[in-house]
TrEMBL record:
Alphabetical keyword list: Cell membrane, Ion channel, Ion transport, Membrane, Metal-binding, Sodium, Transmembrane, Transmembrane helix, Transport
Record's protein name: Fluoride-specific ion channel FluC
UniProt key word NAD: no
Activity modulation notes: Na(+) is not transported, but it plays an essential structural role and its presence is essential for fluoride channel function.
Membrane topology: Multi-pass membrane protein
Compartments, record wording: Cell membrane
Binding site for Na(+): 71, 74
Catalysis performed (reactions): fluoride(in) = fluoride(out)
PANTHER family registered for this protein in UniProt: FLUORIDE EXPORT PROTEIN 1-RELATED
Superkingdom assignment: Bacteria
Organism field: Niallia hominis
Length: 126
């Protein structure tokens, strides 16, 4: 049954990815993919510490959301293809910035998500 939930999460994540990917950006830089991967890193970090580690959700649902939905929302293959396309048109510096920026922002936002997920929210924190 967990395969079904992972598949369902994958459908939702890939649709979300497509929607965000359709947001127009006037430059050659693949901004949409960078935003998708940064958001996904943050959400997975937060989800891991706020939900999974605190066991607030059944493991089958955690897998469906983490692996299925967030995993299909973000993707290394698109990042790689975007970088290759930048190199193909001679934008070596932009390609380097894109790959490095994606890694740095992804890491940063995963940490931020983890830390926010670990916080105990009360009325005084809001």
């Amino acid at each position: 049954m967990s395969y079904f939930y992972v598949g369902l999460g994958g459908v939702i994540g890939s649709i979300l990815r497509y929607v965000v990917g359709q947001v127009p950006f006037p430059y050659e830089f693949p901004f949409q993919t960078m935003v998708i991967n940064t958001i996904g890193s943050f959400v997975l970090g937060w989800f891991t510490s706020a939900i999974i580690k605190k066991q607030k959700i059944k493991s089958v649902y955690a897998t469906a959301i983490g692996t299925g939905m967030i995993g299909s929302f973000t993707t290394l293959s698109t990042l790689s293809m975007d970088a290759v396309q930048l190199v193909a048109v001679g934008n070596y510096l932009l390609a380097t910035f894109y790959v490095a920026g994606s890694a740095v922002f992804g890491f940063m936002f995963a940490v931020i998500g983890l830390k926010l997920g670990e916080r105990k929210w009360s009325r005084s924190n809001a």
